[in-house]
């Protein structure tokens, strides 16, 4: 089988936005970001970035962004969508550089596993470490929980800042054996973190088949039997209420989730959002306010915002 590769020369300022747009909206099978400066500093790793030093000669001045799709995908259509997205990002004031978008086809073969050699243990906190399935790790504390993970083709190795903001939110707000929903679960990392930190039961939803496969496998790797998966959009067709609802998805998709929250949030429950570019925060604030919610805590790493949200007092 072959893969379609869309190659974009642009600026590092739009790397995260392109990465999440590719995964969440265009359903890319995977992405890579190659920054010339990273190659120059030798070996620094970004989520799913493969650094081979001899490739530097082929790199543009700033960022080469690659997105992989099934060979049947509409290449010309995707190029147009990326062009439009970059124009939108430029309209927010982000540098996009001298954009050049091309596409080609490559053999599928080792792409899935090539990035694995750069995926290491994440000592996330005193309570949590994320450990690739193929690595040995001795907990730094006797009660540090280990999340064993093989993200496969799904988003969520634990390296991304948005995942880490969501993990922080879970750690801080899971204060009793709560019922948790992880919306847009990707690899299942947040669902597994919640279960490992003592959630009673967890429902993990996503629209992607790769995510459902990865989440079931990763729950199994961690011997967890209290994680259920459901392939659905956001919380559509989900019954019941949750004490904690976690969602690390692009702001434009979170806007569709906000109207579904009240029906699914238990009394006294909390919501954790991540994946919000700081420029999109005002839209989220307004929508939350309109639906009876308030922000209790705002976390930020670089451009990314994480929120802890509750209902407004009656
Ligand atoms: C940024 S990734 C987050 C993955 C993981 N939860 C993490 O924090 O690393 C967003 C995930 O949301 C999923 N997604 C996008 N739109 C969705 C929708 N409408 N309903 C459910 N999941 C969605 C994507 O397939 C992707 O797995």
UniProtKB/TrEMBL annotation:
GO terms for cellular component: cytoplasm; ribosome. The gene is prmA. S-adenosyl-L-methionine binds at residues 163, 184, 206, 248. The lineage of its organism: Bacteria, Bacillati, Bacillota, Bacilli, Lactobacillales. It catalyses: L-lysyl-[protein] + 3 S-adenosyl-L-methionine = N(6),N(6),N(6)-trimethyl-L-lysyl-[protein] + 3 S-adenosyl-L-homocysteine + 3 H(+). It is found in: Cytoplasm. Keywords: Cytoplasm, Methyltransferase, Ribonucleoprotein, Ribosomal protein, S-adenosyl-L-methionine, Transferase. InterPro entries: Ribosomal_L11_MeTrfase_PrmA, Ribosomal_PrmA_MeTrfase, SAM-dependent_MTases_sf. The keyword Secreted does not apply. Methylates ribosomal protein L11. It holds the Pfam family PrmA. GO terms for molecular function: protein methyltransferase activity. It is an enzyme of class 2 (transferase). It comes from the Bacteria. It comes from Lactobacillus gigeriorum DSM 23908 = CRBIP 24.85. This is Ribosomal protein L11 methyltransferase. PANTHER family: ELECTRON TRANSFER FLAVOPROTEIN BETA SUBUNIT LYSINE METHYLTRANSFERASE.
């Amino acid at each position: 089988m072959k893969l379609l590769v869309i190659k974009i020369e642009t600026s590092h300022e739009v790397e995260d936005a392109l990465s999440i747009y590719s995964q969440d909206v265009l359903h890319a099978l995977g992405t890579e970001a190659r920054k010339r400066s990273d190659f120059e500093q030798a070996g620094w790793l970004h989520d799913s970035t493969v650094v081979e030093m001899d490739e530097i000669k082929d790199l543009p001045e700033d960022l080469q962004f690659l997105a992989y799709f099934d060979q049947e995908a509409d290449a010309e259509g995707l190029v147009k969508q990326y062009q439009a997205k970059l124009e939108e990002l430029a309209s927010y004031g982000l540098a996009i550089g001298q954009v050049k978008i091309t596409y080609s086809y490559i053999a599928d073969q080792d792409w899935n596993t090539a990035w694995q050699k750069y995926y290491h243990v994440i000592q996330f906190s005193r309570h949590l470490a994320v450990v690739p399935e193929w690595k040995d790790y001795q907990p730094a504390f006797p009660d540090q929980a280990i999340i064993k993970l093989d993200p496969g083709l799904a988003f969520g190795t634990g390296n991304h800042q948005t995942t880490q903001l969501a993990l922080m939110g879970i750690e801080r707000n899971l204060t009793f054996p709560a019922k948790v929903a992880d919306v847009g679960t990707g690899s299942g990392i947040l669902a597994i973190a919640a279960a490992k930190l003592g959630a009673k039961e967890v429902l993990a939803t996503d629209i992607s088949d790769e995510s459902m496969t990865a989440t079931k496998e990763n729950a199994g790797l961690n011997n967890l039997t209290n994680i259920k998966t459901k392939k659905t959009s956001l919380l559509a067709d989900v019954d019941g209420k949750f004490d904690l609802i976690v969602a690390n998805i692009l702001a434009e998709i979170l806007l569709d989730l906000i109207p579904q929250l009240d029906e699914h949030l238990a009394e006294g429950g909390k919501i954790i959002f991540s994946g919000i570019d700081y420029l999109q925060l005002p839209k989220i604030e307004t929508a939350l306010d309109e639906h009876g919610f308030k922000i209790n805590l705002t976390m930020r790493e670089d451009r990314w915002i994480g929120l802890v949200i509750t209902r407004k007092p009656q």
